[in-house]
Write a structure and sequence with these properties.
Helices cover about 30% and strands about 15% of the residues. It has about 350 residues and is an alpha+beta fold. The strands form five sheets. Strands 2, 3, 4, 5, 10 and 12 form a six-stranded antiparallel sheet that branches. Helix 2 crosses helix 3, helix 9 packs across helix 10 and helix 10 crosses helix 11. The chain is globular and about 60 Å long.
Length: about 350
């Protein structure tokens, strides 16, 4: 796999040239910087996150949490209740939410956008077990999940060094130039939606430039808009947990989807801001988004509904991953429309066990 990847372009030479930064973003659909973020801040964040998940049983007891040595018998992912049991504790860490307000990030967002960027409160920490590759985040555009505005920017940063084998992010330069949301289908992995790059490349030459990534180091910073095609690389290490941070920024004054104002993986209200804030030491960034007054728009479920319908069709055709998805949904969300349909289809095909 590594030999198929090309190296991300480093833009440190232009970090103080807003016009050139915007030109590169318009042309390539991403910007990558080495050591833009303070490594000490990230390593402290890593210590807090990994200590929390070690207490939750995901790391080998007695090991240094900073080493991230996973207990592979505890493998789980987004969508599993046992994942959110631990993940909600990570979401309550004040340092996680404060990371969106680091001045080096806010300053860079303003240079790229030409105006202030509002940190999106719906922050995502990615925690990926080793040797769990079928759940690797699939190929997608962020708009299908986060919506609101095509020009909101994702900032992805590894929380610790992240070489290729640990499973960093890869992007297709120029793919944002398609100018629209492409056709996504069902897949396992975070978000549950995947697009077929080879198929899309026959219609859109912007999608054919290949995959770019790097051996990320702590402090590195990758940002891209909501239409840039990207994916995670698989974590093929023997025992290392991959930990990374997704912060997003909305150009001030532009629309933001209503689901970006609730906690990530809140499980339909099980995790509230009041619960997240309960043990914080400071109040300065609590409910910070209310002062911006960006227009809030409804979150469309059309992309997720289409992906779920695709999973149902594939399950009826006997596809193992689709059947796995329906079993997970029926177990974890039995009373939702997706959960009810999942159980009905599993009963129909004899897939309940």
């Amino acid at each position: 796999m590594a030999e198929q990847l090309k190296e991300l372009r480093v833009s440190n030479d232009a970090k103080n040239d807003p016009e050139e930064l915007r030109r590169r973003m318009d042309d390539e659909g991403y910007l990558f910087f080495k050591q833009l973020l303070n490594p000490d801040n990230l390593l402290e964040l890593r210590r807090q996150i990994l200590t929390t998940i070690q207490e939750g049983g995901w790391l080998i007891a007695g090991t240094d949490p900073m080493d991230g040595i996973a207990d592979v018998t505890k493998q789980c992912t987004e969508g599993d209740r046992k994942y959110t049991d631990v993940y909600h504790k990570v979401q309550k860490l004040e340092a996680v939410h404060r990371s969106a307000h680091w001045p080096e990030t806010l300053g860079m967002m303003e240079k790229i956008m030409g105006r202030r960027g509002m940190p999106v409160p719906h922050q995502v920490v990615r925690l990926w077990f080793p040797k769990y590759t079928k759940y690797t985040t699939p190929i997608h555009q962020d708009f299908v999940h986060f919506q609101g505005h095509f020009n909101n920017l994702t900032v992805w940063a590894p929380i610790g060094d992240c070489p290729i084998e640990l499973g960093g992010l890869a992007v297709i330069p120029g793919s944002h130039k398609v100018g629209k949301v492409l056709d996504h289908h069902f897949a396992l992995g975070a978000g549950g939606l995947n697009l077929d790059v080879e198929e899309e490349a026959t219609r859109h030459p912007e999608v054919a430039s290949g995959w770019y990534s790097t051996n990320y180091e702590v402090g590195d910073f990758l940002t891209f808009p909501a239409l840039t095609i990207h994916k995670a690389l698989p974590n093929v290490t023997e025992d290392k947990m991959r930990v990374s941070l997704d912060n997003r920024y909305n150009p001030v004054g532009e629309s933001i989807s209503e689901n970006m104002l609730i906690p990530h993986l809140d499980n339909s209200g099980e995790l509230t801001w009041e619960q997240i804030y309960q043990d914080w030491q400071s109040d300065d960034i609590k409910y910070f988004w209310r002062k911006y007054n960006d227009p809030v728009v409804p979150h469309s479920m059309d992309f997720q509904d289409k992906g779920f319908a695709d999973a149902v069709d594939r399950a009826r055709a006997g596809e193992a991953h689709a059947i796995m998805r329906l079993k997970t949904t029926a177990k974890n969300d039995p009373d939702t429309p997706y959960g009810v349909t999942s159980r009905e289809v599993l009963e129909e095909i004899g897939g309940l066990d």
